[in-house]
Amino acid sequence: MPTPPSPIAYIDLKTQQGLIRKQVEQRFTAILDHGAYINGPEVKELEDALCAYTGAKKALAIGNGTDALIVPMMAMDLKADDAVFIPAFTYNATCSAVMIAGATPVFVDVRARDFSMDPADLEKQIAAAKARGLNPRLIIAVDLFGIPADYEAIFAIAETHGLQVMADAAQSFGCRWKGKYAGAIAPVTGTSFFPAKSLGCYGDGGAIMFADESLYEACEQIRWHGTDANRKESVRVGFNGRLDSIQCAIVTEKLKLFPGELARRHEIAAVYNEKLAGAFDAQDFGPDRDSGWGYYTVAIDDRDGVQAKLKDDGVPTAIYYPQPLHTMKAFKHLAPEGGCPEAERLTARVLSLPLHPYMTDAQVDYVVERFLAAVGR
Fold first, then answer.
1. Are 212 and 9 spatial neighbours (Cβ–Cβ below 8 Å)?
2. In what side-by-side order are the strands of the sheet with 289-290?
């Protein structure tokens, strides 16, 4: 049986930790010394660093990636008859966030070529929502697997129909559209710092980034129980959406490594693209959309069989996602007429290969070799 040159991790946080452990421990000591465990100086330090990297005008550290979507929607004051358009092929948190914020999610199918929200179906679902008596308000553009959504088409549709746009960049920190980084593309962007993300903390965490500052003040209030600047009076409904000083310190240290890590992700993806060309259906996203390579996801026939062969050969993989949102128990009452055929097809075919910045060249070559063998090439 083939064996890898060294054990391959799907995500390698241990090697990364070895590079920053001393700095993180020093950060912990500083926080223990100053005692500002909530809203310490590390919070603003991270927010400023996020703006510096992404080009966003403002940023707010948030307790998790789901809250990073809920808070802006609360700031938009969405109602039950307001329609929020989301892709059917993404993580369930996107849909849950819409419902928690009090609005009605409307599922949009995705395109086969890039797995992203299909602009043609978006137009169709906007018309269908209006026919149902809903008020179209917001499009959530999901940068799936690290690849920017088709913002050119989405912004045009939003302008035509008078809709707002928010980006779900939970998987795409570091991606770019027409030279702009996630965080500076859409007016407001939510991201996640879950440990498995390309930029993550050691627990739950997230951030909201603003290219347009109009929602910033309301979001800042909502994440702190809706209170005013003095933290005394509730001026709107809010909740505890803060990110602790310790987690902010961790993300700040990881952000220092991020440019080099992103470059290595690009190197590995380039190897996969070249050596696996023709062996799978790839996300085709064009020159204006530069992936953050949160995941390297392929679409193949006999996905489960290929995954089993790779597991036997010591190659870890993951499936994002095995079920489209509109078929899930909690959301199926919202399924559009006719379903979302492409999302349904993709959930049976997608497989994510290991891609992290601490893979060796030998490990990458081994993944290539075993994948080609598994698909019979």
1. no
2. 180-181, 176-177, 289-290
| Concatenated DSSP letters of 75-106 | HTT--TTEEEEEESSS-HHHHHHHHHTT-EEE
**Per residue of the chain (377 residues), what is the pLDDT tens digit?**
799 999 999 999 999 999 999 999 999 999 999 999 999 999 999 999 999 999 999 999 999 999 999 999 999 999 999 999 999 999 999 999 999 999 999 999 999 999 999 999 999 999 999 999 999 999 999 999 999 999 999 999 999 999 999 999 999 999 999 999 999 999 999 999 999 999 999 999 999 999 999 999 999 999 999 999 999 999 999 999 999 999 999 999 999 999 999 999 999 999 999 999 999 988 888 889 999 999 999 999 999 999 999 999 999 999 999 999 999 999 999 999 999 999 999 999 999 999 999 999 999 999 999 999 999 98
End-to-end CA distance of the chain: 18
Tokens of 141: 């553009």
In this structure, which amino acid lies at residue 312?
A: D
179 Cβ contact list (under 8 Å, min separation 6): none
Other residues' Cβ atoms within 10 Å of the Cβ of residue 157: 20
